[in-house]
Amino acid sequence: MTHNQLLRDLQTELWDFYKDVHGIRPRHWTQQEFNSMEFLQRERESLFKCLDAMSAQQKIDGGWGSDSPTQFEAFMLQATGPARS
Fold first, then answer.
1. Using an 8 Å Cβ cutoff, are 13 and 43 in contact?
2. Which range of residues forms the domain containing residue 67?
3. What are phi and psi of 48, to 5 degrees?
4. How many domains is the chain partitioned into structurally?
5. d(CA 37, CA 73)
6. How far is C-alpha 84 from the chain's CA centre?
7. I need a surface site. Which of 10, 19, 36, 59 has the fewest CB within 10 A?
8. Distance, CA of 3 to chain centre
């Protein structure tokens, strides 16, 4: 996979993931930020931290899975793949 393909995949993932977490698209990002792998990776980690900080009820209310931590982690692994670590 080329750098450009990886960048496009990350852009697509973050465009949707940001909306899933915050309810809006990240239209405030500049084109330079959106084209930066480093920026997108930092944003991705920030979104995971937002999810990790949510209570179990917030996760359920947000559609992020069940109240079982094991089921939630399995859901996130399926949704985002092993790159979360």
1. no
2. 3-84
3. -65, -40
4. 1
5. 25
6. 9
7. 19
8. 20
